[in-house]
Amino acid sequence: MAKDIAVDQLTEPQARAELGRLGDILARANRAYHTLDSPEISDAEYDALKRRNAAIEARFPALKRPDSPTEQVGAPLAEGFSKVTHAVRMLSLGNAFTGEDVQDFDERIRKYLGLGRDSELTYTAEPKIDGLSLSLRFEHGVLVQAATRGDGETGENVTENAKTIADIPKTVRGAPDVLEVRGEVYMSHADFAALNVRQIAAGARPFANPRNAAAGSLRQLDAEITRARPLNFFAYAWGELSEPLSDTQIGAIKRLENLGFKTNPLTVLCDGPEALLAQYRMIEAQRATLGYDIDGVVYKVNALERQRRLGFRSTTPRWAIAHKFEAELAWTRLEAIDIQVGRTGALSPVARLTPVTVGGVVVSNATLHNEDYIAGSGAKGTPIREGRDIRVGDWVQVYRAGDVIPKINDVDLSRRPADAVPFVFPHVCPECGSDAVREEGDAVRRCTGGMICPAQAVEKLKHFVGRTAFDIDGLGAKQIEMFYSDDLLPIKVPADIFTLKQRDAQNIPKLKNREGWGEKSAKNLLEAIDKKRIIALRRLIFALGIRHVGEAGAGLLADHYGTWGAFEAAVSSARVGEGEAWEDLIAIDGVGAVMAASLVNAFHQPAERASIDRLVAQLDVQPAQRRAPVNSPVAGKTVVFTGTLEKMTRAEAKARAEALGAKVAGSVSARTDILVAGPGAGSKAEKAAGLGVETIDEDGWLALIGDA
To answer: What CATH number corresponds to the domain at position 651?
Structure first.
């Protein structure tokens, strides 16, 4: 099983399968944590999975998925709040887990900035609060808006709720005209315990931990409920400013404190990795006595000019990193192993545990990944857990670092019941009875039933109406299950959603007269469906639920092709591994052969293609929004960089090209306009010459864009 093979031992097919598995797990985890305030996997497991994902992408860059977890920030918004577009994106942080990771972070910074080992480079270190990120916007000293992070670009408007938090000033004196303060809303341990006492006394469900309590309290639709909850706020960053707060991170934090914001007293200035690690150890030693939850220490480059130069990756700043604490462990009994079927047909085993308290939270479920993980062996028979398999009745070691589903780490054979037998993984789908097969290179066994499998069909429909897809008010997971099983007004494929109104008009009884519905609710649903006939291209592509095509990949495809007609024609004419349409598809920066093949195969499957065509016939698909035109010599041109760049890093070159309106592709094709070739250019230069593509060196590129 690819999951249990070291990254440096993975074959390319194993790596491809593992990236697919990791992407699915992490996408679900993001939604559960950020949108639903109901995490499903532990912080430590999430970090470990994301780290493994990044390591595989580093070793196999061509396999990086457009919907890679490294390209995601937060998750879709919850219902009930108006939306706020952040003037400056609220990004997440990269993670460090060891002292070596921190040393590597320092070395990367120095390399990017061209600083030697002896050059001065200071950082700040501060506790990483385990709460809910919040952005506060002040104009002329008055708090005018508060918003959650959301997906990084758009958050939830929680202004009235934020005004009830005592730590948040409503007015500030001496601040810039525009001041966007960012920080963390949290709940102290003492307040959390008292709140749960009140919850239980009132017959309400207690909160799992302070983070969930804080998030749930801030995101109340009734601000008076928030007012009754004991919330706190630490300020540690900023977004849009009309004038700088300082020229250093530590100076800006001090300025925020002087303006009346509560900042963390454990924030200090450090002169290098050793000082950072010393502060980490000091904070870790105090962790149990702080009175609030933290899950690590954040390090930031102190000089703001250097932060500006370092800039950002797609979802994280280069100038900051979170050094996470280790997970916690516990032992419990495995009572049962259930098999769940996902929308891609994957059979996923789930451990049902005797409830156990881990880190102050009761957990009762764990992921078991796949059949190899249960059997105690890797894909090629490599032992894991020294070959110990997992059986119903076993005592298993689980770990977690939050209020989430744990992972099984080990098995205690000395406590294994005498009648325990090896778990036999099903070779038929428990939902539809179709064969469940495991293809070469795939880490999981999948149902072959396709749309005849209720689990796959229902999960695909749930995906289709999800918040990041069509997001139809009143048509969520519960309603999809109801309509799928309905004999009079069924929804079996996405197009059925948009014929619901017409079919209801022909039916007796009407939807409004049926149990669970009324005239108003039925009318609202049908109107909500009609509103979604007008849909953005990227949302439609993502909503189709094609394997390996996530939100980021859908966005890349929409931006590249512009319209549904162009996209549909290109994918329909493409053949895997050959032809101009295929070359154009895989040349899109961020679209690899795996995603491209999945996309092409989907459009060439008669049943799936017929379903897509039926759906699109019901829709008005809006073209992708184009960036404002840029007046530059390379605007609108497709540029490829190859070889070694000596005057800037590849990342800087790409960012500069895109800022000038160019498209940066990952491979040379007939659509390439310019190849920038540094020393060591190989096959790309040869291909460009064969296609007659203009080829220039780095100096020529800099002269062309006016940076020489």
So the answer is: 3.40.50.10190
Element (H, E) at 409: strand 407-411
188, exposed or middle or buried, with CB in 10 Å at 0-12, 13-18, 19+? middle
Same domain, 244 and 342: no
Determine what percent of the chain is predicted with pLDDT higher than 70.
92
Predicted pLDDT of residue 590? 76
Peptide bond into 509 cis (omega under 30): yes
Q: Which amino acid is at 571?
A: V
In which residue are the tokens 């130069």 written? Answer: 309
Question: How far lies 42's CA from each of 48, 396, 403, 408, in Å?
Answer: 10, 16, 7, 11
- Say if 427 falls within a structural domain: no
Has residue 708 got a pLDDT over 70? no
Same domain for 166 and 278, yes or no, is yes
Partner residues linked to 329 by β-bridges: 399
Please check whether residues 317 and 337 belong to one and the same domain.
no
pLDDT of 273 reads 96
End position of a domain, from candidates 590, 622, 654: 622
Look at residue 403 and tell me whether its pLDDT is greater than 50.
no
Position 79 pLDDT exceeds 80: no
Q: Token pair for residue 624?
A: 């992708």
- Identify the domain containing residue 571 by its residue range: 536-622
Q: Which long-range contacts (CB under 8 A, 24 or more apart) does 82-86 make?
A: 82/156, 82/157, 83/150, 83/154, 83/155, 83/156, 83/157, 84/145, 84/147, 84/150, 84/154, 84/155, 84/156, 84/157, 85/153, 85/154, 86/135, 86/147, 86/152, 86/153, 86/154, 86/155, 86/239
Q: Has residue 603 got a pLDDT over 80?
A: yes
Asked if 407 is an active-site residue, the reply is no
Query: In this structure, what token pair is assigned to residue 466?
Result: 């999800």
**Tokens at residue 457, please?**
């069909």
187 and 296 fall within a common domain: yes
Query: Could you say which of 3, 50, 64, 128 is catalytic?
Result: 128
> Can you give the C-alpha Rg of the chain in angstroms?
27
Res. 219 pLDDT band, cuts 50 70 90: confident
Angle between helices 564-573 and 551-561 (to 10 degrees): 100
